Amino acid sequence: MNNLGKTSIRYALLSLCSIFFILPFGYAIYTSLLGKSDIGHWVGVAQLTLENYTDVFVNSDMTVWYFNSIVVTLGILIGNLAINTMAAYSLSRLNYPGRGLIFFIIIGMMMIPYQVTIIPIYSMIVKLGWLNSYQGLIIPFMFQGFLVFLMRQFMMSIPKELEEAAEVDGLTKIGIFFRIILPLSKGAIGTQIIFSFTGTWNSFVWPVTLVNDSRWYVLTVGLNTLKNRYFEWPNLTMTGVVLLTLPIIVVFLIFQRHLVQGIATTGLKG
């Protein structure tokens, strides 16, 4: 079989896999457009309606939940981009005593199950008086060990010669970070954005543990209450699923090429 035939088979298989993975979301969209009398039946496009989306926003605090999710996700994302990236630069490009120990500690943190840390973090949040607050939802997760590791491994692959040439031209370490390292790390930064956004946007365990006031619910917690309220109406439940999933798809489509580049080049050196 020639290369053209192998390529065609490969793309055909990938297309089938794509359809297989898209079908559940397609079903969720279809169900979310069904009227209450059409639940459990296949209907034509003319009978589909956006009424469920209107009902969800009118009869629940969906707008508040969306706003809270956006604030929390952007807060954690900005913190991750700043703290994780600078930490990675320090661990990959600067020489100072204890650098290896700090990196070893970060790797060790990655091995601790997330569930183990919930009780100590919750105790600290209670003592600080941060229950039902944005700072309680955001600050504990502004640093992510895995994302520091990912960024460090990527920065280790950037040639030292570029940094040395910049130093000859008079750039300081801060100048090198902003003018050399960051522009060359777009792939890893895009990957970090996807991981940080999806992980935060889909987070449920911590928000449901910390928040007991519906005014501070994020989307995942709010939709869980929606599911309990409308369990007999799967069309309304699926409407919530679609509203939760769409932002993730948009972010992934925007940064997908950076994800491929970041994953492909991370860990080539170090």
UniProtKB/TrEMBL annotation:
It comes from the Bacteria. It is found in: Cell membrane. The chain crosses the membrane at residues 12-30, 65-89, 101-125, 137-155, 176-197, 236-255. GO terms for cellular component: plasma membrane. Residues 66-254 form the ABC transmembrane type-1 domain. Pfam families: BPD_transp_1 (PF00528). Keywords: Cell membrane, Membrane, Transmembrane, Transmembrane helix, Transport. It is a multi-pass membrane protein. One of its GO terms (biological process) is transmembrane transport. Belongs to the binding-protein-dependent transport system permease family. This is ABC transporter permease. It comes from Paenibacillus riograndensis.
